Amino acid sequence: MNAGAIDVDAIKARHPAFFVANWRGRGLAVAIIVAMAAIYVGAFAYFDVPWGRLIPGFRQLAWFVAK
Amino acid sequence: MPHAVVRLPDRQLAALAESYRRAGRRRCVNFLLAAAVLLILIGLSAIEAEVDPKTFIAKIGGFTSYFDRLMTLDSGARVWTDPVSWFRSFKRTARLLGETILMAYVGTLTGGLAAFGLNFVASPNLTGNARLVFVARRFLEFCRTVPDIVFALIFVVAFGLGPLPGVLALAIHSAGALGKQFFETTENIDMKPVEGLRAVGASWVQTIRFAALPQVIASFTTFALLRFEINVRGATVLGFVGAGGIGQDLMEAIRKFYYSDVSAILVMIIVVVMAIDISTQYLRRALLSKGRLA
Q1: Which residue of A has its CA nearest to B102?
Q2: Are the Cβ atoms of B164 and A49 closer than 8 angstroms?
C-alpha cells in the first residue's frame, strides 16, 4: 500500500477505536488454526500413508487418464 | 371509530364474482393439467426404469424380514436384550468411525484450502483476467462433476486400499463443491471497500485480505462445516470401494451375512452422524449470528 502519502498517525489519533488490537480474538484464531493443523498432520500419521506409493500412484493415474 | 362499508352495485358485483370464479376455475384446470403431466412423466419413467409394482408387492416381505434379521442375534434373541453381544466389536467399529471422521476432516480441509485459493481467481469482480476466471471455473466444475465414489475407485487402483484414496477423492470433490459456493459468495460482496483499497494502491492480495475476506469469511466457514457434515456421510460409503473407514467393515458384514454386526455398525454411524450434524449446526448458527470473523 502507498502508505507514504497517508498520515497514519493522524488517522490513528482520529479513529482510535479502529486500531485497538483484539489480542484475545487473535490468540483464539491462532489457537484454532494450530489445533486444526495438528489434527491434520496427526491424521496423516494415523493413516500411515504409504508415501513411497504416491509417485508411482500418480504415474499410474496419469497412465489411466491417458488411456 | 365507525367504518362505512361500501357496497358495490349488484351488476358490478356480479361481474367481479364471475371474473373471480373464472380465475379460480382456470387455476384449478392448470393444477389438474400439471398433475396429469406429472403423473404421465412418473409413469413413463417407471416404464423406462422397469419398475414393476407387482415385484415390489411380492418382495416387500423380503425387505421387512431383512430388518427382522438385523434385529436378531446369532442366539436368536433380540439385539436389545443383549447389548454386550450386539456391540461385541464396539472398539474396532469406534476406531474405524474415528478413521472415517478423520478422512472427512482431512478431505474437507484440503479441498477447502484449494477452494479458498481458487475462488478469488474464479471471481470476475476480483480477477480482471477473463481467461483465468474461465479456466478456474471449468477446473472447479470438473472437480465437482465427477462423484467422489468414482474418484475413490480410480484412486484405489492407483494408490491401493486404505484411507488415502478416500481422502483424495473427498478433497477433490470438496474443492469443486466448495469452490463454487465460495466464488458465488465472493462475486456478491460489496465492492466499495475493494475500490477504496485499489484507489490507495493496495496489491491484489492486500485487497483480498482487507476488503474481500472480512465480508466472506463467516459464510466460507459455514459452507466448510456443512461440507464436513456431507463428507462424514460420504466417507462411510467410500469404504465400500476399499477407500478406508467404516464402510469397508460394513460391506464385509453385509456380504458375510453378519446381521447383528450390520445393525450395530449402522446404529453407531447414525449416532455419530447425528452428533456431528447437531454440533456443526450449532457452530454454523453461532458463526452466522456473530456476522463476521475477520
Answers
A1: A43
A2: yes
Structure-model confidence comparison of residues B294 and A13, the more confident one: A13
On the question of pLDDT at B129 being above 50, the answer is yes
Confidence of residue B213 (pLDDT cuts 50, 70, 90): very high
Judge: B200–A49 Cβ closer than 8 Å, yes or no.
Answer: no
Residue-wise pLDDT tens digits, A37-58:
999 999 988 888 777 877 888 8
Instruction: Determine contact: B164 vs chain A, CB below 8 A.
Output: yes
Looking at beta carbons, which residues of chain A come within 8 Å of B199?
Answer: none
A67 DSSP 8-state letter = -
ipTM of the complex: 0.76
Task: Work out the minimum CA distance from B42 to partner chain A, whole angstroms.
Answer: 38
Cell numbers 478423520: residue:
B102
Asked if A49 is an interface residue toward chain B (Cβ–Cβ < 8 A), one would say yes
CA B134/CA B130 separation, integer angstroms: 6
